[in-house]
């Protein structure tokens, strides 16, 4: 018989849409761990939504103990409001990203349009599905992957890169507000020939939604998506939950949790564990945001803010 | 018509004859308020086609998709803990909002129908307004007001009061969105009924409360029920505004429409439609009750005329 | 409302109580928040406000939103009037059921409606696949937006016209017929003018509701900026980007548009009742 | 244009509204359709207009069968009880309506319509209201506009459904005289419905009394008043007293009073009911003659120049109403509660089987 | 219980509905408030009941100031024009209502209420309708139930707003006699509003004539009819003819006709208007005397026992209406269009400055 817990503690993890399945299992795992370690029952409440709107909700007072969002920019917004310290990203290993992913292309069975790499997405006969980078965090990774590939291909020529990305977005018939909506558009509505997605989403949709109906095309070069996690200091201070919240995030880096991430198709940040899943996660050249765009702040300001590059692309298309 | 008038009115008898030309065989008699049969059939056909495309097919989609994989799947979808939590929350919100809006509707209708005061049209217009405001804007309004960066945010957090991302926020946006329903139903009804019966009750020595209970309430009963039903349905189905202020905490601040979106985004389409079918079922029950209500009313009317 | 102060000796009791509660509730739930919101907008500089609401993309979304809402409301005007007419004037099997179903868009959550509509009208959908044969694409085009807006606005016209039509005295039509008018002439010159105030109200309500609709539209519109992106979605997008000022500015435009719409209807109604008694 | 109604029947569900009615309305006459509520007057009028279809029977206008003709082709002017003026049109537009809706080739020119409408408005003495809307007019004025509108299309037949039903007593009395004069001027065949016997008697050339869907009597106002065909008509045309009477050899006997009843000259010792109008009863303060009936004054009311009495007597089951000029009554010196003697001076006798129904 | 109205004023926005009215209604009397539409009758009645608050002035019941008393405390019975019966209650429940809503300590027991209600229903002769709903009754029956309901609380004062306004002429005539008898039985101070002068004259002990918010005259029915205070009252109480008249030394002269006008005995050679009722005009087929006025018969209508004539004569601006019994008219042998001679036998003269307004 188990020891009766002395206290109960609740924490709220505000996350983004595709991590639902992963955190459901992880929360159970952590609760077990915490009971053993601290003799305390922990109840992790989950909130999922678009990464941006989740970040906004925390800013507006959703009392998250930890946030596990899709991109550093959304977390960084909390810093600007002094909910977390400036050095938040260095508090945990690997830029505070316990798991990573990358951006790949999903095509229909047999790859009828013969899409091999990003280049093929500019072809006139290809319809591309990707969500709107303005509203979807995931979509910003998609965009940055394209941009990084362009820079690489055109040797840093911004003009030609712009033209390349513009051509891709010109092939987009539907710009869903969120990543999951885009998946539904591609899968349920059978719209588009190529679907730009996170690797974990891509594998999931191939596995869950139509085994054998889709294929994943791994491009030659892509971006290393690093969804960051952090404790929301202002909230844990107020609620007195810092201890458990920090433990919650640290536990993400344990072997157990890393395996669980892989099970949900996220690339474990621990290279040795990642190596165990090579058939699931093929090797490819990856660049990070900081490498190409200096920082998320910078990428956001240049590309996604009002009047940024993406707005120019939209204006040129129309 | 006599020549005398024809002269006075100034038309020759030739035009008089032309006024009602009769050519060919006499047409079949038709009621003055009726169209020829083929027009009737065409109009009914057009209307039904339109309704089929816009009303019945969506309904069919929801029901079909909900039961596509059998009753078992449907049942487990709606008894899954998160779904149950969403249902509970929705019921809780409705249990708060509907009585409040009912009180408001009755009070507003009473004040407007039984009294004269300046600015009455303005008040009626104001009550109409929430109909026209985008749910998204409603959500935004409350975030700006109660969010921690909002005007009342610091004050609220100083007292550790949670409004948005908690049940009160959901209650308030739904109350906002469904504010006019009952009032709109009652105001014209009570205006039309006037105040004679109330005055009669007062002359007979009854107090205000007794007058309300014994005279007014029975008279507005059916309109009130219909208003409550519609308000209830709208409150349960509100999505846009709730999405902005709910915080989407699983099992806690997800109402049924939000839960449906969650399920849909988790690729659990059947489950999403199963929960939708509950709301649809509610809509259908609503409609059934409303029909009964109207039928009752009609019968009363008939009896009254008899 | 200066006249609210209770004048001496109202005979029916409860004015203070009911008016007090009405104003309190209306104030708490509606007036104060909306007032605060408008006040918030006034804290923006004129330039910020003007730039936010005249951004090219926003203008494009106005065109789509107002245009589609107008078209949808117009469709509802025509078909809603037709449905009301058929429901009031004719007898056919299933009439009660059809009548009851008209309220469905009020009751069904908008998101569910959006999903159901896209299931129907996507080019792989129940209806869409047949339309696709003729090259008509509904989902992810402006047509899709119009379909969704038509769906949600349908009850307004039907439910405002229906009671008026029911109350419309047969004597007017009979008078018209006895004066030699044909059915079409009677419709045009007697029935339509009598229905006009109700039609206008229904039209305006359907329009105002369509303008603000979000839940059902995002599923069926392609959400492409400049092309199929509605204004409420832009408001959401602005908010997601932590740009509350922009969101509030556009929101204010929508709010004012809706208010104006209601003002116009009430004005028109006041005018017609003045004129025709 | 004469109107012939030939064995017309009409029922609503299981209710017979018009029961085998045959009537002829003569050219240029003003006929009143008189009857209690629900007697089928409106239904009959609407059948003539073509607003209802008879179940069986024919309608002929000037000999020509119009039963199947649509209302818009019949050329009838119909004036509705509640006027049915078009609210959104001015008075001018209302009156002009029938002309402006004609097909182009028979439609008069603008100026012609204008002239004609203005002349009609003058006819009803309301030309100064041309630019008003109906709601700006009084009830009586609306009624006259409705009439002008009906006349604008030069109908062959004018049908009026309780034309003054919705008006005040005073306006009503004025308008009905006005209608009479108007009719004398334009002489179009007219039928009007009323349930007010005074109106029917005062205005019309001819009165048709209906009850329960049937025609009870059809004749000139005087004929109908003086020689009611049956107790129903008698009672319907005014206040009436019923005395128990013995019938014997052409005489009715109420107590010792003998009144002539020549139509019963061959009856002996039967019992019947004598119908007597209030003003046909003489009242005495003393038993001036042997053949007066003793009575007791229960109520006196002075209504302008007339005094109305209610008296109780053994010869009648109900209170007896008597009416006499005020000066005559004052000469009698009677007050409430006094004994008095009464004598019917005239009566109409019916056998009990033709009893008055509760119309 | 007497009712005293003391300098009461009431306006709605800028419209003066009741204009400085002072009146006393005496204990046990049945008073009629008579006046044209909009003259403020209903408003005055509602002020008495406490349903409206006067702007200034006091209301006293039996000397006690009740102006500030709430309607539910005044103990008045109010009968509304459209009855205002509670639709969802049976007749029994309607009548019992006033008793069942009393606070517990003064509320009679169930059985007592039952008895009382049934007695009242018997009084209005409708005990057999106890379990019906109002919509199952005819208008006249509803009216009587409304009365029973008002009486159930044993009001000190009974107020009736056009109690018969919504009824058929026939039912109306019956009910008003019934009301008179009922009042004689229960003798509660009663005020009823009407705009029908016949109703006022026939039913009431006293008539108050109102116009434009003011009391024009206040007196017994005969007083008001025989001695109208001014042209308005004269005209309002019945059809009237106006002749141009010269006034000289207590006489009015219409042509050569001299009629007494003693109230003007000190006037010389002034001109005025002589008001004459139709039945006060004698009609001759020949100029039997020198002082008859020549006229022309424009319209004859026979209404039951009476004949109404419209005549044109130089002595009056409008058509002159005359009324005479049918047998007298027939004896004259006149027909439409004939010349005739008329003579007013009685008149009331007013100076032109007290002209009849267009009431
Ligand atoms: N459309 C209808 N459907 C069913 N019953 C009807 C209809 N029209 C008339 N009736 C019935 O037919 C009977 C005669 O009606 P009608 O209107 O002709 O009477 P009326 O003599 O004009 O009475 P009133 O004086 O009340 O107008 C009434 O009992 C009425 O209820
Ligand atoms: N609540 C009110 N608001 C404004 N004006 C009113 C109100 N009640 C009555 N009036 C006005 O006061 C005047 C007198 O009205 P009142 O109802 O007393 O007349 P009335 O003599 O009863 O007339 P009727 O015979 O038409 O019932 C009318 O001109 C009416 O328009
Ligand atoms: Mg009728
Ligand atoms: Mg009144």
From TrEMBL, chain C:
The complex is composed of two ATP-binding proteins (CysA), two transmembrane proteins (CysT and CysW) and a solute-binding protein (CysP). It holds the Pfam family BPD_transp_1. Keywords: Membrane, Sulfate transport, Transmembrane, Transmembrane helix, Transport. Part of the ABC transporter complex CysAWTP (TC 3.A.1.6.1) involved in sulfate/thiosulfate import. Probably responsible for the translocation of the substrate across the membrane. Belongs to the binding-protein-dependent transport system permease family. CysTW subfamily. InterPro entries: CysT_permease, MetI-like, MetI-like_sf, Sulph_transpt2. This is Sulfate transport system permease protein CysT. It comes from Billgrantia zhangzhouensis. CDD domains: TM_PBP2 (cd06261). NCBIfam families: 3a0106s02, permease_CysT. It is a multi-pass membrane protein. PROSITE patterns: ABC_TM1 (PS50928). Residues 62-265 form the ABC transmembrane type-1 domain. The keyword Transport applies. The chain crosses the membrane at residues 21-46, 66-88, 100-122, 134-158, 190-211, 244-265. It is found in: Cell membrane.
TrEMBL record, chains D, E:
PROSITE patterns: ABC_TRANSPORTER_1, ABC_TRANSPORTER_2. GO terms for molecular function: ATP binding. Residues 3-237 form the ABC transporter domain. Keywords: ATP-binding, Cell membrane, Membrane, Nucleotide-binding, Sulfate transport, Translocase, Transport. InterPro entries: AAA+_ATPase (IPR003593), ABC_SmlMolc_Importer (IPR050093), ABC_transporter-like_ATP-bd (IPR003439), ABC_transporter-like_CS (IPR017871), CysA_C (IPR041193), Mo/tungstate-bd_C_term_dom (IPR008995), P-loop_NTPase (IPR027417), Sulph_transpt1 (IPR005666). Pfam families: ABC_tran, CysA_C_terminal, TOBE_3. This is Sulfate ABC transporter ATP-binding protein.
């Amino acid at each position: 018989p188990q020891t009766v817990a002395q206290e109960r503690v609740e924490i709220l993890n505000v996350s983004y849409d595709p991590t639902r399945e992963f955190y459901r299992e992880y929360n159970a795992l952590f609760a077990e761990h915490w009971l053993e370690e601290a003799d305390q029952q922990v109840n992790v409440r989950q909130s999922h939504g678009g990464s941006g709107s989740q970040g906004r909700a925390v800013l507006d007072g959703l009392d998250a103990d930890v946030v596990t969002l899709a991109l550093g920019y959304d977390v960084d917004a909390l810093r600007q409001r002094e909910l977390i310290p400036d050095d938040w990203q260095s508090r945990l290993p690997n830029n505070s990203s316990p798991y990573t992913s990358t951006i790949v292309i999903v095509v229909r069975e047999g790859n009828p349009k013969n899409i091999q790499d990003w280049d093929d997405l500019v072809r006139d006969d290809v319809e591309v599905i990707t969500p709107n980078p303005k509203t979807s965090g995931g979509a910003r990774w998609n965009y940055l992957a394209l941009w990084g590939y362009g820079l690489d291909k055109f040797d840093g020529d911004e003009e030609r890169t712009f033209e390349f990305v513009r051509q891709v977005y010109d092939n987009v018939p539907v710009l869903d507000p969120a990543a999951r909506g885009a998946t539904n558009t591609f899968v349920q509505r059978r719209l588009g020939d190529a679907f730009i997605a996170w690797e974990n989403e891509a594998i999931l949709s191939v596995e869950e939604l139509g085994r054998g109906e889709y294929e994943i095309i791994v491009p030659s070069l892509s971006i290393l998506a690093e969804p960051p996690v952090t404790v929301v200091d202002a909230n844990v201070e107020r609620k007195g939950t810092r201890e458990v919240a920090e433990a919650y995030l640290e536990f993400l880096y344990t072997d157990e949790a890393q395996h669980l991430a892989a099970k949900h198709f996220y690339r474990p940040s621990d290279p040795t564990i990642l190596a165990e899943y090579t058939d699931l996660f093929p090797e490819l050249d990856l660049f990070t945001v900081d490498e190409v765009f200096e920082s998320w702040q910078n990428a956001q300001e240049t590309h996604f803010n009002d009047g940024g590059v993406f707005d120019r692309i939209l204006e040129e298309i129309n | 018509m006599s020549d005398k008038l024809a002269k006075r009115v100034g038309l020759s008898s030739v035009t008089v004859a032309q006024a009602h030309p009769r050519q060919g065989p006499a047409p079949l008699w038709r009621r003055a308020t009726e169209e020829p049969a083929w027009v009737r059939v065409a109009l009914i056909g057009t209307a039904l086609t339109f309704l089929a495309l816009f009303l019945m097919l969506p309904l069919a989609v929801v029901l079909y998709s909900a039961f596509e994989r059998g009753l078992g799947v449907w049942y487990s979808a709606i008894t899954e803990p998160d779904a149950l939590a969403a249902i509970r929350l929705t019921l809780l919100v409705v249990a708060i909002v509907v009585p409040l809006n009912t009180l408001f509707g009755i009070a507003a209708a009473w004040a407007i129908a039984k009294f004269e005061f300046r600015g009455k049209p303005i008040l009626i217009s104001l009550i109409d307004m929430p109909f026209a405001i985008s749910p998204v804007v409603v959500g935004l309004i409350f975030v700006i007001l109660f969010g921690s960066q909002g005007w009342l945010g610091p004050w609220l957090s100083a007292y550790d009061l949670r409004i948005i991302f908690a049940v009160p926020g959901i209650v308030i946006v739904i109350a906002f969105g469904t504010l006019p329903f009952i009032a709109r139903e009652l105001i014209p009804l009570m205006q039309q009924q006037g105040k004679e019966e109330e005055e009669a009750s007062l002359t007979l020595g009854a107090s205000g409360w007794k007058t309300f209970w014994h005279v007014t309430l029975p008279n507005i009963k059916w309109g009130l029920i219909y208003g409550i039903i519609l308000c209830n349905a709208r409150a349960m189905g509100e999505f846009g505004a709730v999405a902005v202020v709910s915080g989407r905490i699983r099992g806690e601040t997800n109402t049924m429409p939000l839960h449906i979106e969650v399920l849909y985004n988790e690729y659990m389409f059947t489950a999403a439609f199963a929960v939708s079918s509950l709301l649809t079922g509610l809509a259908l029950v609503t409609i059934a009750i409303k029909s009964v209500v109207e039928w009752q009313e009609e019968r009363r009317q008939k009896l009254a005329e008899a | 409302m200066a006249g609210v102060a209770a004048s001496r000796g109202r005979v029916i009791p409860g004015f203070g109580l009911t008016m007090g509660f009405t104003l309190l509730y209306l104030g708490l739930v509606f007036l104060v928040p909306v007032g605060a919101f408008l006040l918030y907008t006034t804290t923006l500089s004129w330039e910020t406000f003007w730039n936010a609401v005249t951004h090219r993309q926003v203008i494009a979304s106005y065109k789509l939103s107002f245009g589609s809402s107008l078209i949808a409301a117009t469709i509802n005007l025509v078909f809603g009037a037709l449905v009301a007419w058929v429901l009031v004037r004719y007898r056919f099997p299933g009439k009660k059921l059809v009548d009851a179903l008209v309220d469905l868009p009020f009751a069904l959550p908008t998101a569910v409606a959006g999903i159901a509509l896209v299931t129907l009208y996507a080019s792989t959908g129940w209806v869409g696949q047949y339309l696709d044969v003729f090259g008509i694409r509904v989902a992810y085009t402006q047509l899709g937006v119009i379909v969704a807006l038509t769906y949600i606005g349908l009850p307004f016209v039907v439910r405002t016209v229906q009671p008026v039509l029911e109350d419309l005295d047969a004597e007017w039509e009979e008078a018209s017929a006895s004066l030699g008018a044909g059915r079409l002439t009677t419709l045009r010159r007697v029935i339509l003018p009598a229905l006009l105030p109700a039609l206008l109200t229904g039209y305006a309500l359907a329009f105002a509701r369509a303008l603000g609709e979000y839940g059902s539209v995002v599923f069926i519109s392609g959400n492409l900026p400049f092309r199929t992106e509605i204004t409420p979605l832009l408001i959401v997008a602005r908010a997601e980007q932590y740009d509350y000022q922009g969101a509030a500015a556009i929101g204010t435009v929508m709010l004012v548009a809706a208010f104006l719409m209601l003002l116009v209807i009430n004005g028109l109604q006041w005018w017609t009742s003045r004129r025709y008694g | 244009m004469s109107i012939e109604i030939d064995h017309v029947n009409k029922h609503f569900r299981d209710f017979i509204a018009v029961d085998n009615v045959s009537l002829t309305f003569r050219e240029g006459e003003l006929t009143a359709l008189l009857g209690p509520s629900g007697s089928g007057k409106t239904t009959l009028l609407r059948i003539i207009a073509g607003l209802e279809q008879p179940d069986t029977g024919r309608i002929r206008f000037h000999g020509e069968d119009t039963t199947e003709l649509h209302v818009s082709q019949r050329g009838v002017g119909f004036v509705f009880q509640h006027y049915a003026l078009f609210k959104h049109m001015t008075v001018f537009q209302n009156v002009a309506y029938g002309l402006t809706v004609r097909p182009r080739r028979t439609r008069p020119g603008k100026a012609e319509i204008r002239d004609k409408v203005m002349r009609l408005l003058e006819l009803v003495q309301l030309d100064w209201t041309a630019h008003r809307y109906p709601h700006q007019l009084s009830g009586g004025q609306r009624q006259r506009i409705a009439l002008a509108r009906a006349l604008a299309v030069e109908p062959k037949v004018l049908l009026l459904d309780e034309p003054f039903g919705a008006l005040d007593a005073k306006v009503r009395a004025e308008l009905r005289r006005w209608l009479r004069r108007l009719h004398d001027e334009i002489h179009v065949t007219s039928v009007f419905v009323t349930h007010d016997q005074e109106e029917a008697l005062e205005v019309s050339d001819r009165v048709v009394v209906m009850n329960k869907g049937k025609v009870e009597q059809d004749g000139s106002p005087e004929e109908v008043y003086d020689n009611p065909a049956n107790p129903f008509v008698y009672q319907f045309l005014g206040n009436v007293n019923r005395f128990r009477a013995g019938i014997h050899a052409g005489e009715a006997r109420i107590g010792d009073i003998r009144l002539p009843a020549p139509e019963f000259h061959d009856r002996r010792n039967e019992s019947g009911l004598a119908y007597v109008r209030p003003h046909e009863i003489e009242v005495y303060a003393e038993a001036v003659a042997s053949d007066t009936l003793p009575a007791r004054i229960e109520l006196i009311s002075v209504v302008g120049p007339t005094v109305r009495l209610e008296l109780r007597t053994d010869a009648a089951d109900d209170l007896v109403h008597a009416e006499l000029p005020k000066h005559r009554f004052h000469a009698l010196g009677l007050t409430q509660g006094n004994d008095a003697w009464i004598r019917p001076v005239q009566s109409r006798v019916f056998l009990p089987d033709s009893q008055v129904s509760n119309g």
